[in-house]
């Protein structure tokens, strides 16, 4: 066998492996659809498809299942949440891009050295970065924390007084919590869309004598509309699938959403509340699966509809795009509305900062007093509750998930960026499926893991890890692909020029220079795993807090609770609220640290270039 | 710039408000109960409560159980776990819910149990049959488990030992030992681990028993978990748990396994700790849960 031949065999087999990795997302999406559909067939058959979809009664004692009330509740709160969160999110993005000052310009005339130093220090802070981090932190907070913030502060502290029935739960509470949760998604995507609008549009509008506000709201904003619509659609997808936070503020009884304070039970809540109580193999279980299936279809429709939004600016930031765009816009010299909108942007940005500040304060005030060394790492010898077993389980889930997901995700990214022809049909299909996978609600992942992985491994850390692989795969593929794309073509050409094979080039040249991007992917995945709860409760399990011991958690074939699930069970058992807040504080710190790591990795990459 | 200072000031003001809200200005205590909190349909506690609470419905039919009524209504809210009932009730004095009697003691700083039909919710009253809200606690297991797993057999026997009964009787009512369960002798089992899975209502009891057992028998590990009675059967069948915990009578496929009743538990009707409500009748509970009729606190 000649050397050339063996290299060729290697190259081809590697290519095939990468293709398989890339196709995995397709299999995953179809797998999820098929498994859940098969599990829901008995319900559709027994109840009747239309009866199931349009029935208004859900009573499992008499095997009556109809989800219309829940479907309406889901749709209503989603629409309201997207209106509320969308307005705030889009305006916040506009503020961030156009009006957020770079730094404070504080002046201090006095002679106090300390104050002088403080002022100098404050003036150094990069406000844009801070704002960016605030949005990322909001995105990283586990939804269980949002849920308890919603109950204790929003419902019991505020909405109760507005409700004539002195209750506060229901449509409005759900909307507000959902809105806060989707703001990060909408803001960051809108920001990207606004930044993709060629600078000439903005400059041209200013040159025509428009004020800054007019240029922004009459030229740049309309030009970015397709990106903003995509952002809103993805926000809808996130809102439809949210489970844990909604469960705590929705009220949980299936009513039509006829008023702001009517308790409701969206689809996700129904599934999550009753999954723990079903008799396996019963029609009840199948009906819950069918509910999950309806939810999945709903989310698929929403995610796929993003593809029908025309993409206007594919070029890089600031490049000239030859396109008609603005010729129908009538510029006016005076306009009050854009000026008002400008202040709207500032107010919305303020709301976002305040929400985050409130959540952080809420957790810190309740959590910090309960933190102690033995609570964190007490282990089995410690009398009270300790987080040690949860740390161990979280660590296991992270390690096992990454061991499986990293090679698959990187392989897929390599195929998409190095092998596939850009813009080919096949690549488009794969990308669509990756996007679809990333839009699947975590409770649906939980149901799938329950149907497949729990049957294989039993309720165990392994089942949880396999489920999480599917959850984080899109994140890894996307971040890695971005990193690969940023590697200059010259590097590859130089490597080929020296006689290296393609596979050698990829592993010795391209991947090492893409390492910071891959590291970012890992950190983002860790964040996602840590904040996940709905997908893990039915797969890795939810151990009773008091029974979680290091000796049991050390064996990954046992069930175990990760930190977030652990925090949820503190609340769920109703035995130790102080510790629950302390856990929330620990999670907040972890999220913050992970965000910082990503920030510094990206900063070091920028410096190098 | 002024705007920035304004923004910072605004944030500070909001934060202060938020702190104020969090540190417990819970407002006035309501003088009537307007909202019922039920557990998720299918939960052991809910099945028992709905079966036991009866009243006269609007058509004049007497002795109608709640389980025959449609409880998914605008005046009720429904939550998944015992802890969520406590969270809700402790934050709002116009709510009323029900939890396992055994879970009340740990939360007396937040909630209180009220009398039902004029009887205090105490273990003695349940035992004497005065307090009408009670249900069985069951463990289900494969018959062969007791022979193949000495720790499982020993732990089950421990429940009826002197120490076990002492723990159990604190907040629950003991029942006769079922046939087939052996006698417990300390120190006969040196190692092994077992897992119990299912109802959250049983977990406080199992926690006490398991901790005492493990203290007496070093080297053994007992774990427990789960989020509802419904999970018990699957966990036993797939072997991930030796015992399934069910906080109601066993039904359906569950009866194909061995069922051992270990205790009787009262169901406490709970309200905010400062609520003036002291007593509710079945009819009041029935009207609240089925029709949303408020209960006046005198």
Question: What does this molecule look like?
Answer:
- The complex is a heterodimer of chains A (609) and B (298).
- With 609 residues, chain A is mainly alpha-helical.
- Chain A folds into two domains: 3-40 and 372-608, MetI-like fold (Orthogonal Bundle), CATH 1.10.3720; 79-262 and 293-367, MetI-like fold, CATH 1.10.3720.
- Chain A has helices spanning 3-47, 49-54, 68-99, 113-124, 127-140, 143-155, 171-196, 199-207, 212-223, 225-241, 244-250, 267-275, 283-305, 336-367, 373-377, 388-419, 425-439, 442-451, 453-457, 461-486, 489-497, 502-513, 515-531, 534-537, 550-553, 563-573, 577-608.
- Helix content of chain B is 34%, strand content 24%.
- In chain B, the strands form three sheets. In chain B, strands 2, 5, 6, 7, 8, 9, 10, 11, 12, 13 and 14 form an eleven-stranded mixed sheet that branches. Chain B has a two-stranded antiparallel ribbon with strand order 1-15.
- In chain B, strand 10, helix 8 (203-216) and strand 11 (220-225) form a beta-alpha-beta unit.
- The mean pLDDT of chain B is 82.
- The chains are: A mainly alpha (609), B alpha/beta (298).
- At the A-B interface, helix 6, helix 12, helix 14 and helix 26 of A face helix 1, strand 5, helix 3, helix 8 and strand 11 of B.
Molecular shape of chain B: globular
The number of helical segments of chain B is: 10
List unreliable stretches of 5+ residues of chain B.
none
Mean pLDDT across every amino acid position of chain B:
82
Terminal CA distance of chain A = 43 Å
Instruction: Kindly give the count of domains of chain A.
Output: 2
CATH architecture of the largest domain in chain B: 3-Layer(aba) Sandwich
The number of distinct structural domains of chain B comes to 2
Oligomer: heterodimer
């Amino acid at each position: 066998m000649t050397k050339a031949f063996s290299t060729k065999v290697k190259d081809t087999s590697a290519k095939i492996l990468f293709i398989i990795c890339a196709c995995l997302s397709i299999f995953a999406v179809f797998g999820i659809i098929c498994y859940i559909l098969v599990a829901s067939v008995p319900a559709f058959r027994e109840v009747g498809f239309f009866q199931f979809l349009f029935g208004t009664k859900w009573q499992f004692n008499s095997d009556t299942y109809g989800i219309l009330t829940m479907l309406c509740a889901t749709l209503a709160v989603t629409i309201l949440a997207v209106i509320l969160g969308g307005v705030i999110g889009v305006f916040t993005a506009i503020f961030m891009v156009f009006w957020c000052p770079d730094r404070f310009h504080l002046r201090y005339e006095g002679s106090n050295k300390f104050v002088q130093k403080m002022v100098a220090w404050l003036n150094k802070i990069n406000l844009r970065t801070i704002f960016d981090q605030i949005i990322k932190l909001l995105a990283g907070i586990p939804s269980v924390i949002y849920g308890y913030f919603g109950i204790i502060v929003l419902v019991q502290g505020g909405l109760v007084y507005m409700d004539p029935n002195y209750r506060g739960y229901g449509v409005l509470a759900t909307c507000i919590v959902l809105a806060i949760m989707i703001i990060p998604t909408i803001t960051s995507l809108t920001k990207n869309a606004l930044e993709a609008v060629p600078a000439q549009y903005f400059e041209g509008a200013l040159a025509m004598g428009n004020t800054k506000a007019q240029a922004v709201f009459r030229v740049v904003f309309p030009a970015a509309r397709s990106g903003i619509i995509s952002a809103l659609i993805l926000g809808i997808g996130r809102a439809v699938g949210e489970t844990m936070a909604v469960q705590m503020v929705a009220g949980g009884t299936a009513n039509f959403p006829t008023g702001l304070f009517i308790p409701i039970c969206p689809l996700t809540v129904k599934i999550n509340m009753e999954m723990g109580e079903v008799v396996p193999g019963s029609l009840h279980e199948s009906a819950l699966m069918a509910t999950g299936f309806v939810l999945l279809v709903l989310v698929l429709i929403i995610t796929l509809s993003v593809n029908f939004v025309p993409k206007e600016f594919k070029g890089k930031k600031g490049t000239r795009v030859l396109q008609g765009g603005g010729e129908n816009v009538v510029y006016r010299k005076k306009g009050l509305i854009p000026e008002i909108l400008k202040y709207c942007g500032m107010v919305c940005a303020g709301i976002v900062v305040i929400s985050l500040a409130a959540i952080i304060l809420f957790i810190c005030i309740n959590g910090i007093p309960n933190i102690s060394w033995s609570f964190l790492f007490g282990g089995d010898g410690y009398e009270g509750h300790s987080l040690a077993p949860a740390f161990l389980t979280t660590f296991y889930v992270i390690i096992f998930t990454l061991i499986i997901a990293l090679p698959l995700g990187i392989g897929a990214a390599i195929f998409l960026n190095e092998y596939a022809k850009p813009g080919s049909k096949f690549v488009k299909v794969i990308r669509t499926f990756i996007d679809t996978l990333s839009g699947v609600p975590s409770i649906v992942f939980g149901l799938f893991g329950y149907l497949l992985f729990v049957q294989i491994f039993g309720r165990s850390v392994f089942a949880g890890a396999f489920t999480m692989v599917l959850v984080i795969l899109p994140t890894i593929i996307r971040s890695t692909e971005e990193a690969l794309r940023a590697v200059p073509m010259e590097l590859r050409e130089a490597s080929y020029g020296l006689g290296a094979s393609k596979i050698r080039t990829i592993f010795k040249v391209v991947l090492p220079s893409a390492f910071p991007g891959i590291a970012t992917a890992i950190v983002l995945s860790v964040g996602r795993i840590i904040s996940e709860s709905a997908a893990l409760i039915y797969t890795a399990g939810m151990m009773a807090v008091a029974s979680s011991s290091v000796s049991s958690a050390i064996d990954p074939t046992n069930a175990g609770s990760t930190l977030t699930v652990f925090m949820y069970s503190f609340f769920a058992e109703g035995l130790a609220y102080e510790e629950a807040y302390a856990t929330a504080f620990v999670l907040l710190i972890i999220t913050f640290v992970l965000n910082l790591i990503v920030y510094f990795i990206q900063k070091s990459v920028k410096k190098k270039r | 710039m002024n705007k920035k200072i304004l923004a910072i000031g605004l944030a500070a003001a909001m934060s202060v408000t938020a702190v104020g809200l969090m540190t417990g200005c819970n407002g006035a205590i309501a003088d009537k109960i307007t909202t019922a909190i039920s557990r998720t349909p299918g939960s052991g506690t809910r099945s028992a409560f709905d079966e036991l609470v009866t009243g006269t419905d609007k058509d004049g039919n007497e002795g109608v159980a709640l389980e025959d009524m449609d409880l998914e209504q605008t005046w009720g809210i429904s939550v998944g776990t015992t802890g969520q009932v406590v969270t809700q009730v402790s934050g709002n004095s116009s709510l009323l819910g029900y939890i396992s009697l055994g879970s009340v003691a740990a939360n007396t700083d937040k909630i209180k149990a009220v009398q039902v039909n004029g009887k205090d919710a105490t273990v003695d009253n349940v035992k004497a049959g005065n307090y009408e809200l009670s249900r069985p606690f069951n463990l289900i297991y494969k018959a062969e488990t007791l022979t193949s797993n000495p720790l499982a057999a020993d732990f089950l026997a421990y429940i009826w030992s002197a120490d076990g009964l002492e723990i159990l009787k604190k907040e629950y009512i003991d029942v006769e030992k079922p046939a087939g369960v052996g006698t417990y002798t300390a120190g006969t089992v040196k190692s092994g681990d077992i897992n119990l899975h299912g109802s959250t209502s049983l977990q406080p009891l199992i926690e006490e028993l398991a901790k005492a057992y493990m203290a007496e028998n070093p080297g053994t590990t007992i774990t427990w978990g789960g989020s509802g009675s419904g999970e018990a059967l699957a966990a036993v069948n797939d072997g991930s748990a030796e015992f399934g915990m069910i906080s109601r009578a066993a039904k359906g496929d569950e009866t194909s396994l061995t069922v051992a009743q270990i205790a009787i538990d009262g169901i406490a009707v709970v309200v905010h700790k400062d609520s003036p409500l002291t007593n509710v009748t079945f009819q009041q509970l029935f009207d609240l849960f089925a029709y949303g009729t408020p209960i006046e606190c005198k």
